[in-house]
Design brief:
Blueprint: E1 2-4, E2 10-12, H1 44-69, H2 73-83, H3 103-119, H4 124-157
Antiparallel strand pairs: 1-2
Length: 187
């Protein structure tokens, strides 16, 4: 037995027991098929592979190592790819690297990283990682600088909190656009 769906696809519905299906032809939850595989349970193939590796894993590794020692390229490749962890990162040491404590030293640090990459002292990936860290520190320093300036202005004016009441501002669409022709300064 089959029926059309909204997308004009044919779905075959079990002729033996259509009560196991919903209105769209899919199996209902909790039907006769049972609850399915339990949580945390591996499929049978993975269970068989795990059991074989438990029983023969050491022998397999020893054979691969013997093959690699005797010059088998496939075994060598397996040893290098599978038995050694991929190299993630390394410690980078640069002489004369400034401590980033203000915006000027952040600029000096970026310059030092750029010169180290171009001179071949460090790789491009290490340089990019250092540059990203310096940029994050620079953003923190800039935010701190803005906060200090705002607090200085508030102490001079005696105001605290926001200087503008946002309820008094016009809605965004009523603000003049930078691209409106009548707002442009043509001299």
């Amino acid at each position: 037995m089959s029926r059309n769906t909204d997308s004009n696809r044919e779905i075959s519905v079990s002729a033996q027991n259509p009560a196991d299906r919903d209105t769209r032809g899919r199996f209902k939850k909790g039907g006769q098929a049972g609850p399915g595989r339990g949580k945390g349970r591996k499929n049978r193939l993975n269970e068989v592979i795990d059991r074989l590796l438990e029983e023969n894993g050491e022998d397999i590794v020893q054979r691969i190592l013997r093959g690699a020692r005797s010059g088998d390229v496939a075994c060598m490749k397996l040893v290098v790819e599978r038995l050694t962890p991929p190299r993630r990162s390394r410690i980078v040491r640069l002489d004369d690297f400034p401590a980033v404590v203000d915006l000027e030293t952040a600029d000096a640090a970026q310059t030092r990283v750029l010169s180290a990459v171009t001179a071949g002292e460090i790789g491009l990936e290490e340089g990019q990682a250092l540059s990203d860290l310096i940029a994050q520190k620079r953003q923190i320093l800039e935010a701190r600088d803005i906060l200090v300036r705002i607090r200085a202005l508030e102490s001079r004016t005696g105001a605290t909190g926001p200087l503008l009441d946002h309820a008094e501002l016009p809605p965004f669409r009523q603000l003049p656009s930078l691209f409106d022709e009548d707002n442009s300064d043509e001299s």
